[in-house]
């Protein structure tokens, strides 16, 4: 599914029309509202869209509130050193594991799983500086920001950064590959990228951090394992995951509840 058919071109036009009136490309409608947007400083995505029309980029707050039901009971996880905390559904599991090699002293790594033990996300702090992903122009793939909600977290700015957002983004390949996480790094120029990093550039001396299903989303090859990233046949399926399912609603609330001791 790497080519763009006539129906795909119609889908692209719909995406462009929807994004034309949005400020800087980030949705401010609240949690769970999918918006076919480009990130700040980029143009609307040019990936093929098939199926029914794209969802409205101006969904109301009331529609957002009922987009995906969240768990009835929640708890708070805090690491022993009290450097991070976040909410998660009562029956989900948060477990501290050994930080990755090369992380800064005091770094923490927490894996989150659902009630059945299925992996959902990893919080990792103290990450070393990361260089922007680069590749040949011909290898860059179109991507779409399906949902983007600002969140207040400690971060540093600079070229290629925005304020932190909880996002769900989809990159085009032989299928549409999606991932959720927190980032303040712009994906790429002209809504095309080699990889989309779910990483926040942290304060000086603190290292970067990531809270996501995968730290870096790419367009997978047919023989590569996609999980824990998501794969969809159409962009509409990706929107359905964001706007209708309870898993994303719960994950988004969890990500937005993150607190980091600066």
N→C terminal distance: 44 Å
Strand order of the largest sheet: 9-6-7-8-13
Helix content: 10-25%
Which regions contain 5 or more consecutive residues with pLDDT less than 50? 1-66
Element-by-element helix/strand order:
HHEEEEEEEEEEEEEHHE
Concise structural overview:
With 262 residues, the protein is α+β, with helices and mostly antiparallel strands. It has helices spanning 6-19, 61-65, 235-244, 246-256; strands at 74-78, 84-89, 93-97, 109-113, 119-127, 141-150, 161-172, 176-185, 192-193, 195-197, 208-212, 216-218, 230-232, 259-260. Residues 40-54 have a biased composition (Low complexity).
Task: Describe the secondary-structure layout.
Layout: H1 6-19, H2 61-65, E1 74-78, E2 84-89, E3 93-97, E4 109-113, E5 119-127, E6 141-150, E7 161-172, E8 176-185, E9 192-193, E10 195-197, E11 208-212, E12 216-218, E13 230-232, H3 235-244, H4 246-256, E14 259-260
Antiparallel strand pairs: 1-2, 2-14, 3-4, 4-5, 5-11, 6-7, 6-9, 7-8, 8-13, 10-12
Protein name: Lipoprotein
Region (Disordered): 31-54
Keywords: Signal
Task: Describe the overall structure.
- The protein has 262 residues and is of the alpha+beta class.
- It is globular, with a radius of gyration of 18 Å.
- 15% of the residues lie in helices and 31% in strands.
- The chain has helices at 6-19, 61-65, 235-244, 246-256, and strands spanning 74-78, 84-89, 93-97, 109-113, 119-127, 141-150, 161-172, 176-185, 192-193, 195-197, 208-212, 216-218, 230-232, 259-260.
- A 5-stranded antiparallel β-sheet has the order 9-6-7-8-13.
- 45% of the residues are buried.
- Residues 1-66 have low confidence and may be disordered.
- Residues 31-54 are annotated as: Disordered.
- This is Lipoprotein.
- Residues 1-24 form the signal peptide.
- Residues 40-54 have a biased composition (Low complexity).
- Keywords: Signal.
